């Protein structure tokens, strides 16, 4: 396929807001790709060069892109900048100045290879090389293709869909409807790489997906929790269960192949640590990497757990915000000393070539206990009790709350690992309904959709209120306009974050009533955890629900907008409070 053709699809996708229509267009696009290019088409249409977890970055900022455009089209940087100020999109600027006749159109694979080379270039002189190679590429492309190519390194392709829509499109491609989506998603949950999934479907059909095993180095979608109102209902639904403390730190999935004398014991060997939204954060946790090597009794493992910071003087666990300070690009070693971590492992998903996802939890736990035999280390076996008694469960829960933890997670004792899904194999138990005089059973993680400028005292912050929403099949529906419940510091932070992601137009995935139109729209990037007293029915919000007395708990940098609370979950919370 030529890149020119791909660009015409991008153009159609960009103009479309109906999710169903987007899925159909994508399915048609994928149908026309060959096996050797289908993965690249998936990645590029998501604005990337590889799976999410590969985290391939161009390191090309706007300023550099202005130089690229200036070189590519022989205009001054000043002129490019002036145009950018007028149009507000560097892609459009490139398209505007691209006037030359082009040679034969490049294929998707050719363009991809050149982009990959640019992204991977590093070391001395790499900035200049990146600029001139990208300018060279633009020179070989037509105006429309250039528009999209410019947006990719800047992280601004934004065709308005995520990996999950691409999975839908696979189903439409093979079956003409969404009937195969679940089967495809199951494969993706075990191996979160849309490109690989596309290639398997192209070469072997859906049957190829059925034998897909976990692969060391490729993240598995982490299992998540459901909510139930009382200890009794938890026991009723799950039966015999393990009860574990719920740590309020950072979820990490560690892939570890042991090295001896600098060589991995197996050819698949690697060391990688992923967050719950599949970000590769290995370099941020050198202490955990080191500890895995010393403390794990296996050649290869995938461990699931929560890392939590502690005060080296008192040994006390630190609040979430403190632990999150470890997530940084610079001064990693210094922070690791200041905020040492314990990595509490509560599951093992793979060991020495064996995929353990289908093994029941009690068996996985036996294996985990053998792999992590020693206490008091950095990599720690999460404690647990096993029970089917609500009183015992409640007692253990209260003990954890007293210790300053969030509560407990209960886990069905004989269930397989349930990647990505919020099935009733894991249930979180934070605060029992009614115990603290009503309130919601849980907080909501909402997406900030826009903000309103402040009046009076608020003018000082530049922001007086903000609009948040929940997710429904790739769209965001409003559920609250929040103008109180933030400290001064939180308002300043909110303003700073909103400014970074503001956009001139309403993002096409937003459904917002006219009366609630914010002064400034924000791209769906910021996820905030919101606590509220109640959820009520609302005719004003497009979610048809509203939050009463909402308060900002914290920014959820560990969650992507696709992981925000869904409308269905909000509905469940609404029903749970009755
Ligand atoms: P919350 O907002 O309540 O922290 P969440 O929305 O991040 O929860 P949930 O699926 O509701 O995610 O809860 C699962 C999260 O709880 C996991 O992602 C993990 O980070 C954390 N956690 C802490 N301790 C445990 C444990 N023992 N077992 C499983 N998950 C745990």
**Overall pLDDT, averaged?**
91
Query: Mind telling me the C-alpha Rg?
Result: 25 Å
CATH homologous superfamily heading of one domain:
DNA ligase/mRNA capping enzyme
Unique ligands:
adenosine-5'-triphosphate
Taking pLDDT < 50 over at least 5 consecutive residues as the criterion, the unreliable ranges are 433-438
Largest sheet: 8 strands, mixed
The CATH topology of one domain? D-amino Acid Aminotransferase, Chain A, domain 1
Number of strands: 23
C-alpha termini separation? 56 Å
- Percent in strands: 15-25%
Q: What general outline do the C-alpha atoms trace? A: globular
| Alpha-beta content class | alpha+beta
What's the helical proportion of residues? Answer: 25-40%
CATH architectural label of one domain: 2-Layer Sandwich
Helical stretch tally: 21
CATH class of one domain, named Alpha Beta
């Amino acid at each position: 396929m030529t890149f020119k053709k791909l660009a015409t699809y991008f153009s159609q996708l960009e103009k479309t807001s109906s999710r169903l229509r987007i899925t159909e267009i994508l399915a048609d696009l994928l149908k026309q790709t060959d096996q050797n290019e289908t993965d690249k088409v998936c990645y590029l249409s998501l604005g990337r060069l590889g799976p999410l977890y590969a985290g391939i970055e161009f390191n090309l900022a706007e300023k550099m892109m202005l130089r690229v455009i200036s070189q590519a089209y022989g205009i001054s940087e000043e002129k490019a900048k002036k145009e950018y100020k007028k149009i507000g999109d560097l892609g459009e600027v490139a398209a505007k100045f691209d006037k030359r006749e082009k040679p034969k159109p490049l294929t998707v694979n050719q363009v991809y290879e050149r982009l990959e080379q640019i992204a991977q270039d590093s070391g001395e002189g790499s900035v200049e090389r990146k600029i001139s190679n990208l300018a060279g590429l633009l020179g070989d492309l037509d105006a429309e293709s250039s528009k999209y190519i410019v947006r990719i390194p800047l992280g601004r392709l934004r065709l308005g869909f995520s990996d999950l829509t691409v999975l839908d499109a696979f189903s439409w491609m093979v079956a003409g409807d969404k009937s195969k989506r679940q089967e495809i998603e199951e494969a993706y949950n075990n191996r979160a790489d849309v490109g690989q999934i596309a290639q398997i479907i192209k070469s072997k059909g859906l049957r190829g997906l059925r034998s897909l095993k976990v692969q060391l180095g490729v993240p598995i979608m982490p299992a998540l929790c459901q909510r139930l109102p009382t200890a009794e209902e938890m026991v009723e639904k799950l039966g015999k269960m393990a009860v574990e403390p719920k740590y309020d730190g950072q979820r990490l999935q560690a892939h570890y192949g042991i090295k001896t004398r600098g060589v991995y014991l197996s050819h698949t060997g690697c060391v990688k640590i992923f967050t719950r939204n599949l970000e590769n954060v290995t370099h941020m946790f050198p202490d955990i990497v080191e500890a895995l090597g010393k403390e794990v009794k296996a050649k290869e493992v995938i461990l699931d757990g929560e890392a939590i910071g502690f005060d080296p003087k008192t040994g006390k666990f630190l609040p979430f915000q403190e632990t999150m300070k470890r997530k940084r690009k610079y001064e990693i070693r210094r922070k690791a000393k200041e905020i040492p971590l314990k990595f509490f492992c509560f599951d093992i998903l793979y060991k020495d070539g064996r995929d353990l996802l289908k093994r029941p939890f009690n068996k996985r736990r036996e294996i985990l206990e053998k792999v992590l035999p020693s206490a008091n280390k950095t990599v720690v076996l999460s404690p647990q009790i096993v029970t089917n008694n609500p009183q015992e469960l409640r007692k253990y829960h209260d003990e954890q709350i007293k210790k300053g933890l969030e509560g407990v997670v209960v886990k069905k004792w004989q269930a397989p690992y349930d990647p990505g899904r919020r099935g009733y194999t894991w249930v979180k138990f934070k605060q029992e309904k009614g115990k603290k005089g009503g309130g919601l059973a849980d907080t909501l993680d909402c997406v900030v959709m826009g903000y309103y400028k402040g009046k009076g005292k608020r003018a000082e912050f530049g922001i007086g209120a903000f609009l948040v929403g929940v997710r429904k099949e790739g769209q965001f529906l409003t559920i609250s306009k929040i103008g109180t419940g933030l400290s001064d510091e939180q308002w300043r932070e909110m303003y700073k974050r909103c400014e970074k992601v503001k956009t001139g137009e309403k993002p096409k995935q937003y459904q917002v009533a006219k009366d609630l139109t914010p002064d400034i729209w924000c791209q769906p990037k910021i996820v905030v955890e919101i606590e509220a007293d109640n959820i009520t029915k609302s005719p004003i919000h497009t979610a048809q629900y509203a939050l009463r007395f909402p308060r900002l708990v914290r920014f959820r940098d560990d969650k992507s907008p696709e992981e925000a609370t869904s409308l269905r979950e909000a509905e469940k919370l609404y029903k749970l409070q009755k």
